[in-house]
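Hey, sorry to bother you again with one of my protein questions. I've been puzzling over a protein and I'd love to understand its fold better. Take your time with it, there's no hurry, and the full record follows here:
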Amino acid sequence: KFGLAEVQIGDGCGSLTMPSTDMRLSAMTALAAEQLVDLASAGAGAGAIAIGTHDGAGTTSWRRIVVPEMLEMPVEGGAWRLRIARPVVDRMREDIARHPGVETGGLMLGSCSARTMVITVVDLLDPPSDSSRSASLFVLGKDGLKSAIAKRYEESGKRLIDVGTWHSHLAEIGPSAIDRRTAKDLAEERPPPAVLLIVTPSSFHALMHEPAST
């Protein structure tokens, strides 16, 4: 079956990929801790994913995947901050390049932490077929959008959620009156955070609408 399922093992331990004994988990954790110490000691700005492979005969080999530093910015209209994975930024720029002369956009997927007030974007959904693009406006369609969000949520082990939308501006212009109304509409559809991200030729603008406290 495609996707992840969380399996509880031992006392307070969990595995996202496989059931395992406490003995095996402890041995793997010790090796992983050594990798973590090495990465922390390097002091690199980028992140990394360390993957260990056990051959069944007592030998574990490791490989590392470099994770570029995320793009981070404040979110206008709230106390939140937005972080976007670099591959997601690249996909946005590629989509803009495929649609010259018109605004384009889509839906952002990721996670949010109310404790740290951080929204993290790690994936995008392409706009539905009933979306429309013009030189002054991008309208995100609705055809099949809810089912696509639900499918990605299940495939991610119920980790990735819809955290907002993004669209481009052809010029170096921040949020318009329409954008602010859209942010308000998003907030009314569901509880914050619901981010509206604007991508200009050389910058990014993130905003949300938080209802005034009563």
